Amino acid sequence: MNQRELGQQEKCLFHNYQPGEYAQEHIRITPTKLSDGREFFYLDDSPEYVSGSKTRELKDPRPLADRFASTVDEAGRVVAPQAPQMRRDPLTGDWIPMATARMDRPITAGPNASTTGNPLAARKLGDPYQDGEVPDTDYDVVVFENRFPSMMQVPGDKLETTYINGNHLWEEREANGRCEVVCFDPDENALPAQLPIRRLRTVVEAWAFRSAELSALDGIEQVFPFENHGQEIGVSLSHPHGQIYSYPFVPPKMEAELHQSQVYHERTGGNLLQDILSAEIEAEERIVMRNHSWVAYVPAAARWPLEVHVAPVRNGLLSLDQLNDQERWDLAQMYSTLLQRGNAFFDKGDGKGMDLPYIAAWHQGPVRDSRRDNYRLNLQFFSLRRATHKMKYLAGSESGMAAWISDTTPEKIANRLQELGPIDIES
Question: Taking every annotated instance into account, which residue ranges of this chain make up the domain Galactose-1-phosphate uridyl transferase N-terminal (predicted)?
């Protein structure tokens, strides 16, 4: 069986993901389940695994209990598994998941570190820490359901709204979403900015693969791939990784963007994000990078001390799984360059820059909301660092009233990024 036939065979394992020509030839997805029943996927780009001459370890040796099994409480009563709960804030309409299980998650980074083992690392034979999530002793990229999720779908749950204290002011529902982890590389000391473009191309494929599959789950309204990086951001595991949250509601920031986009469309007939990109290209001064498929710019009303938005050139794209092969390769190149320039943004005087704390947030069109047609795929990248030794902390205006005050100007941010390399980055 050749590589294309292998790719076609594994395509049959998924209902919604459509791999392009490159993925069919050069990326192999191998699904398995961890010992507690969570889904796990290897995404291999190493030729020996893509060809099938080598195979991955599929059995998780840990004696974890089935996460959906009933338990017995201290009083001897049988307790059925329960999804995390969420409550709606009557003042804002926002749903707030109550993620109590996250209190037990392992922490390996920062002053609150709680374990010496890295659950995202490949299994190390003979290592005393054997509670890692990856069954094999090596991998390229892996994706799996979070062991300590903020949201979870429990089979058989009846999705219904109840009321706290019987008062209709306070709605409560199951947080019937899904949380996944994406590990970018087996090297736990690697930085995402240091990864080769070929590996980041596999990460892009993972985002596309999961966006397609997760969007088809019952009850999912928004699929949100993102990366938190750096202790200052609050990252608890230093391994190069990101996450994908699949919300059973439209999150507040997306709700605000959808509202603005819809109002703009009704007033002008245009697409707000498309027109913003066109206006930035025409203005030129805040464009910081571009290649065949993507444009990166500092938005004219940037909030953060370092903020860059990345948008596809092609119109009509709502989600990562809609990207073609060229767009996925160009995205890997753009993302790599963006991370490298982010690390060089603040100069400590030695010319080496720093490991920038950042959040990279993929804004995709909502799954079912009718306003999705007037939206457009975009990446919003930002850092809380405002100087070499200073962070931006949200003060009373930002935290109390969500009224932002910027510490700089978008033009200064763009000028600094333009100093760090050419705008045109065609490979």
Answer: 83-251
Catalytic, out of 241, 265, 292, 363: 241
Pick the CATH number of 3-62+80-247 from 3.40.50.1820, 1.25.40.10, 3.90.1150.10, 3.30.428.10: 3.30.428.10
Parts of the chain belonging to CATH 3.30.428.10? 3-62+80-247, 252-419
Return the residue matching tokens 């959906």: 68
- For the chain, the first-to-last Cα distance in angstroms comes to 33
pTM of the full predicted structure?
0.93
Give the DSSP letter of residue 345.
S
Q: How many residues does the chain have?
A: 427
Nearest to 292 by CA among 342, 334, 337: 334
For residue 9, the model assigns a pLDDT of 47
Q: How many CA atoms lie within 13 A of 174 on its CB side?
A: 17
Positive or negative, the CA dihedral 206, 212, 218, 224 is positive
Cα distance between residue 87 and residue 363, in whole Å: 24
Kindly report, residue by residue over 116-171, the tens digit of the pLDDT.
678 999 998 888 777 899 999 999 999 999 999 999 999 988 889 999 999 999 99
Determine the Cα–Cα distance for residues 180 and 246; give it in Å rounded to an integer. 8
Three-state DSSP state, 162: strand
Structure tokens at 291: 């290649």
- Rg of the chain's alpha carbons, rounded to an integer? 22
pLDDT for res 138: 96
Each residue of 372-411: pLDDT tens digit?
999 999 999 999 999 988 989 888 999 999 999 999 999 9
Catalytic-residue membership of 241: yes
pLDDT tens track for 335-371: 999 999 999 999 888 888 899 999 999 999 999 999 9
Residue 257, pLDDT score: 98
Task: State the amino acid at position 23 in one-letter form.
Answer: A
Residues 264 and 394 sit within 8 Å (Cβ to Cβ): no
Helices 325-344 and 197-215: crossing angle in degrees, nearest 10, is 120
**Which of 100-104, 287-291, 296-300 is the least confident region?**
100-104
Task: Report the topology of domain 252-419.
Answer: HIT family, subunit A (3.30.428)
Q: For residues 245 and 224, is the Cβ–Cβ distance under 8 A?
A: yes
Within 13 Å, how many C-alpha atoms sit on residue 238's CB side? 19
Residues 6+ apart with CB under 8 A from 125: 137
